[in-house]
UniProtKB/TrEMBL annotation:
Taxonomy, superkingdom: Bacteria
Xref: InterPro entries: Aminoglycoside_PTrfase, Homoserine_kinase_II, Kinase-like_dom_sf, Pseudomonas-type_ThrB
Recorded family membership: Belongs to the pseudomonas-type ThrB family.
UniProt-recorded name of the protein: Homoserine kinase
Molecular function in Gene Ontology: kinase activity
Catalysed reactions listed for this entry: L-homoserine + ATP = O-phospho-L-homoserine + ADP + H(+)
Gene name as annotated: thrB
Source lineage: Bacteria, Pseudomonadati, Pseudomonadota, Alphaproteobacteria, Acetobacterales
CDD domains linked to this entry: HomoserineK_II (cd05153)
Entry keyword annotation includes Ribosomal protein: no
Pfam families attached to this UniProt entry: APH
Keywords: Amino-acid biosynthesis, ATP-binding, Kinase, Nucleotide-binding, Threonine biosynthesis, Transferase
């Protein structure tokens, strides 16, 4: 996370007075992350995370995200759950922004990604897909294929300042991937995390202990979530996919939820789509992040490298 919004101590105290958490002992801004403002708070009741929702998160969608986390946690997934204030409401306002407190998860992101960590991550992803099944509400993917061209256009050619010729290359890649994208209804759909990067999975003793950051979650192709993870977890040098990491991830996932033949066949398009989606949001952020924000901008070109690798031979790399 990042800190876009500072909270004066008296505002925080007034906010916390609505909860049964006891007096505040400590508050720290969390520098990790990109999307929202997060604080680690410690009260008499223990540690918790206070999030002020910024940027891309739409206020009217927050009940969906918080509801999904509550559903998954109740069904046994280790993920943050909304803390409810004395009036029964979890989603509140602070500093003129929507805000919520969620439970603190133990564990840490893994330092070195190994095949065994990927196996465990794949299992957690597949479990999440199965557990999400009973959550009937539907949230379309606001960063899905229909959003890519508008997102590229909203960068007004800035891709070329990052790398000459990138705008045209992306226009071309988007057309090709859209043409290969699975038709509606042809692959299993469910609740997906859609941002399960290494910073959003906590590990303890080598295994996944919890998943965080569900604010891109949506109802979309389950195999697309796996494609996002193949991009995020399996490129140790940011350029070339590692066969052992991919085998670990695919193996872990399929040990819980085997892929259908049509899902395997669609993976080459899905991994390219995932590269495009993260390349575009990173590009957008690269040119639009406020200078005074405490945040580390992420490199758009890291996802260009992935896209280039997949476009050269996705089928061969994925062994599908
Ligand atoms: N429930 C949680 N338990 C423990 N730490 C958390 C929790 N949620 C967030 N964090 C910490 O805050 C950081 C940023 O959270 P994240 O949800 O990824 O923010 P953003 O949505 O802004 O990207 C995480 O990397 C982690 O260090
Ligand atoms: N995972 C995305 C950016 C979103 O950041 P997060 O902190 O919400 O995971 C990327 O790497 O581009």
């Amino acid at each position: 996370m990042a800190v876009y919004t500072n909270i004066p101590p008296e505002e925080l105290e007034a906010f916390l007075a609505e909860y049964d958490l006891g007096p505040l002992k400590r508050v720290d801004g969390i520098a990790e992350g990109v999307e929202n403002t997060n604080y680690l708070i410690e009260t008499e009741a223990g540690r918790a995370i206070l999030t002020l929702y910024e940027k891309r998160v739409r206020e009217e969608e927050l009940p969906w995200f918080l509801g999904l986390m509550q559903h998954l946690a109740r069904r046994g997934l280790k993920c943050p759950t909304p803390v409810i204030a004395r009036d029964g409401v979890a989603l509140r306002r602070l500093m003129d922004r929507p805000a919520a407190i969620t439970t603190f998860l133990t564990g840490r992101p893994i330092e070195t990604i190994t095949a065994s960590a990927c196996f465990s991550l794949g299992q957690s992803l597949a479990r999440m897909h199965l557990l999400g099944d009973g959550f009937r509400a539907h949230r379309p993917n606001s960063l899905g294929p229909d959003a890519w061209r508008p997102l590229l256009n909203s960068c007004h050619g800035a891709a070329d300042t990052v790398q000459p010729g990138l705008t045209a290359e992306l226009e071309n890649a988007i057309s090709e991937v859209l043409a290969a994208w699975p038709a509606s209804g042809s692959l299993p759909v469910g609740q997906i995390h859609a941002d399960l990067f290494p910073d959003n999975a906590f590990f303890e003793r080598g295994n996944v202990s919890g998943l965080i950051d569900f604010y891109f979650a949506c109802t979309d192709l389950l195999a697309y979530d796996l494609a996002i993870c193949l991009n995020a977890w399996c490129f140790p040098d940011e350029r070339t996919p590692d066969a052992a990491l991919m085998a670990g991830l695919m193996g872990g996932y399929q040990s819980i939820r085997p892929l259908a033949a049509e899902e395997k066949a669609a993976l080459p398009a899905l991994v390219q789509g995932a590269s495009i989606r993260f390349l575009l949001t990173r590009l957008y952020d690269w040119v639009n992040t406020p200078v005074d924000a405490i945040v580390t901008r992420k490199d758009p070109l890291a996802y260009h490298h992935r896209l280039v690798a997949w476009r050269a031979d996705a089928r061969g790399l994925l062994h599908v």
